[in-house]
């Protein structure tokens, strides 16, 4: 008889032991390809420059190549130790294929920090696809995802525990649709949760959910990421939740309205919590996930950022101030991610 497990880079664990979990972070990743064109000599000069107090704000807004590379096991260990001291127990590294995924590095980070790490698999959006994704068919892509979950990544015995983040654009590119349908097939076969990075358009989550339903994927096994940069009203968020999927507010700590990747007015943490309160009031507390999506050096404490403990240190007190109960906080930060990540091993 199969046992329900959470699959970490150091092995399978009981979901009941997971503790406070942030289900969308990055510990080791490389988002530096592709970058927007640098129009001036000054911009090109700063692209690989060290991050300093003098350039921190500009780098955080513009996201230089240096900012977009999280490539140090030692730095990741130090940052996660602070997270653990604040009460953090587990994180999902949502780095998928094409983003510099490093299974050996993640295993070392987990072992040295004492924090459970769940590794992602599948493919990010089209600009990051390996060249061969164009010619491979859906079944072949699905087989690779299944192997990552069941056997190990890239010839290692280190296994992924979640499918995603699967990157989508808007309009959805045919290559991304092929990848998404492959991920659906892999989800049905493995039972692992499927995490979607929707395109930066309010129509993208609905388009993705239509495909998931057509592919016979249970929406309760789906995490819709980045809702707060994709839709901006309570009715839109309730509409996504009404599908049955998890609704992930995973950009906590990004407090500036400026968004470098699209003409979007970003909310702050207080607005995120207000949306969460509305979803709780609507009966969707069991479908809410929260995280930070740290993927830049300027997010890290070492470089003057908020660090992985931001939710524990600052957001949970904010939630309490806005009358979110301790039981609801525990559900959102412990029970929901444990349930989302659990599958039959």
TrEMBL record:
SUPFAM superfamilies: Metallo-dependent hydrolases. Keywords: Hydrolase, Metal-binding. The keyword Metal-binding applies. It comes from the Bacteria. Gene3D superfamilies: Metal-dependent hydrolases (3.20.20.140). Belongs to the metallo-dependent hydrolases superfamily. Phosphotriesterase family. PANTHER family: PHOSPHOTRIESTERASE-RELATED (PTHR10819), PHOSPHOTRIESTERASE-RELATED PROTEIN (PTHR10819:SF3). This is Phosphotriesterase. It comes from Nonomuraea insulae. The lineage of its organism: Bacteria, Bacillati, Actinomycetota, Actinomycetes, Streptosporangiales.
């Amino acid at each position: 008889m199969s046992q329900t497990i959470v699959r970490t880079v150091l092995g399978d664990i009981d979901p009941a032991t997971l503790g406070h979990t942030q289900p969308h972070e990055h510990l080791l990743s490389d988002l530096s390809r592709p970058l927007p064109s640098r129009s001036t000599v000054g911009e090109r000069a700063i692209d690989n420059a060290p991050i300093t107090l003098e350039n921190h704000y500009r780098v955080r807004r513009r996201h230089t190549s240096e900012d977009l590379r999280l490539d140090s096991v030692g730095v990741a260990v130090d940052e996660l130790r602070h997270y653990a001291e604040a009460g953090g127990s587990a994180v999902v590294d949502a780095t998928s294929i094409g983003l510099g995924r490093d299974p050996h590095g993640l295993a070392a980070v987990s072992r040295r920090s004492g924090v459970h790490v769940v590794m992602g698999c599948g493919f990010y959006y089209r600009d990051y696809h390996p060249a061969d994704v164009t010619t491979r068919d859906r079944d072949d892509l699905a087989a690779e995802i299944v192997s990552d979950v069941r056997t190990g990544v890239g010839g290692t015995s280190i296994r992924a525990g979640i499918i995603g983040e699967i990157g989508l654009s808007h309009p959805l590119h045919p290559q991304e649709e092929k990848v998404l349908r492959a991920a659906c097939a892999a989800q049905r076969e493995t039972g692992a949760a499927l995490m979607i990075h929707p395109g930066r358009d309010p129509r993208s989550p609905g388009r993705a959910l239509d495909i998931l339903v057509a592919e016979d994927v249970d929406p309760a096994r789906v995490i819709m990421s980045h809702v707060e940069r994709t839709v901006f009203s309570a009715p839109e968020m309730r509409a996504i939740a009404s599908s049955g999927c998890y609704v992930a507010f995973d950009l906590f700590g990004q407090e500036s309205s400026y968004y470098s990747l699209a003409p979007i007015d970003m909310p702050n943490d207080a607005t995120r919590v207000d949306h969460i309160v509305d979803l709780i009031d609507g009966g969707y507390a069991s479908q809410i996930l929260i995280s930070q999506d740290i993927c830049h050096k300027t997010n890290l404490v070492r470089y003057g950022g908020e660090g992985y403990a931001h939710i524990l240190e600052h957001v949970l007190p904010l939630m309490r101030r806005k009358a979110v109960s301790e039981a609801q906080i525990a559900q959102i930060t412990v029970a929901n991610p444990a349930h989302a990540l659990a599958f039959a091993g």
